[in-house]
Amino acid sequence: MSTNRDWIKSTIAHRPSPAVPYNFSFSPPALKALQDHYGAEDIPRTLDFPIRMKGCKSVKPLYASPERYGPTATDEFGVVWTTSDIDRGTPIGAPLTTADLSAYTFPNPRDEYRYEDLDAWCEANREHFTVIWIGDLWERATFMRGMENILIDVALDPGFVEKLLRGLADYILETMNVLFDRFDFDAVALSDDYGTQTSMIMSPDSWRSLLRPRLVEIFALAKKHGRYTFLHSCGNVEPIIGDLIDVGLDILHPIQPEAMDITRLKREFGQALTFCGGLGTQNLLPRGTPQQIRDEVRRLEDVMGAGGGYILEPGITLQADVPLANMIAMIEEARNRS
């Protein structure tokens, strides 16, 4: 394949490839350790990662430093977050204290600040597979209402949940319209956790009633404009993988091996879906040896990568608890086989 972009497209098409592609993301402490080790600021560029990801800007960035923002930061949806030097923080203030949208105004998806620097980023990465994060749907609803409250709403007031998800879906769809009109990139990504360690957060039937129709709209718009679709959902989402294929998903991330039997997922769904992830972050990466990590990278490439449709990645963004030697083992083993 002539470019990293071609490499990923070939993988999604399940065409034979001499190597399995990979994707890595790091929290600020993990990234700083790698920057110091490699003597480089831009790790994806220095190490030639084939996938490049960027999100639309937010009033509260993903990693908001307490030094700059103070102890809390409020995002454009009115959600109050703790700030942190090591992770994204925690949502501690939900703007919707009751199941009522009558006094709430959604932010403007066309606010120009959201799209700053995207032109230059797309141009700088045009030989790589470019993915733009378009937001969150169910996950955003949990931030705006609080997890306990929104789950009660699912059971007792699904009409309110439908209205909230409708407003959030409209925000995402209009974001996509701006992106497709102005920028050249390959895929849209939605962050929308549906799983716990052992099961889904809500019943599959509730998911199909509340979330599936919105995903149909979002993925259909992406397909209309010739873009691939990428969904991040932590936890066990096995009951709805068939649904995700039906509604037009191309890449499912991060297939946490602690929550699902990912080799069985490969056997059952691997011809229709590309899996991205699978490298354990709960025990293997923080507590394993570098050799154990190299061995698991090779195993995943051989088993999950057979026949294409697989991108190697850890089960979640690497945190401060992963030793530098383990991150280096993961990266070098992946790159050695590419």
CATH C-level class is Alpha Beta
Question: In terms of per-residue confidence, which ranges show pLDDT below 50 for 5 or more consecutive residues?
Answer: none
Strand order of the main beta sheet, please?
1-5-6-7-8-9-10
Strand % is: 5-15%
Structure class: alpha/beta
Q: What is the H/E string?
A: HHHEHEEEHEHHHEHHEHEHEHHEH
Please compute the radius of gyration using only Cα atoms: 19 Å
C-alpha end-to-end distance: 11 Å
How many discrete domains?
A: 1
Number of helices: 15
Please identify, by name, the CATH architecture.
Answer: Alpha-Beta Barrel
How does this structure look, described?
The protein is of the alpha/beta class. The chain is globular and about 55 Å long. It has one domain (4-58, 107-336): TIM Barrel. Strands 1-5-6-7-8-9-10 form a seven-stranded parallel sheet. Helix 8 (158-182) runs parallel beside helix 10 and helix 14 runs parallel beside helix 15 (324-336). It has 15 helices and ten strands. The mean pLDDT is 96.
Blueprint (SSEs and pairs):
Blueprint (H helix, E strand, L loop, with lengths): L3 H9 L15 H11 L4 H4 L4 E5 L10 H4 L2 E3 L5 E3 L8 E3 L24 H7 L4 E7 L2 H8 L1 H10 L1 H25 L4 E5 L12 H7 L1 H13 L3 E5 L8 H6 L4 E3 L8 H8 L4 E6 L4 H4 L2 H14 L6 E5 L9 H13 L2
Parallel strand pairs: 1-5, 5-6, 6-7, 7-8, 8-9, 9-10
Antiparallel strand pairs: 2-3, 3-4
